[in-house]
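Query structure, 69 tokens:
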């Protein structure tokens, strides 16, 4: 698989960066809820993001999504 050629650290950072981007205010958009970010990561798992890392990241951050509402 081509994605496995990308260093593990880079694959982890890509997921963390996407989560931060979605949940942070930007000059061009308002922050979205943590639950929205987790849903987006899961939607893009095994395509844009490493599915195994997404499976680890999302449950760990699910508590943030619940306290978000």
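Result returned for the query:
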């Amino acid at each position: 698989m081509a994605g496995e050629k990308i260093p593990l650290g880079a694959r982890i950072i890509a997921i963390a960066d996407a989560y931060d981007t979605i949940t942070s205010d930007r000059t061009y958009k308002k922050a979205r809820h943590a639950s929205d970010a987790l849903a987006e990561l899961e939607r893009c798992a095994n395509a844009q993001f490493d599915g195994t890392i997404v499976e680890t990241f999302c449950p760990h951050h699910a508590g943030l999504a619940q306290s978000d509402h």
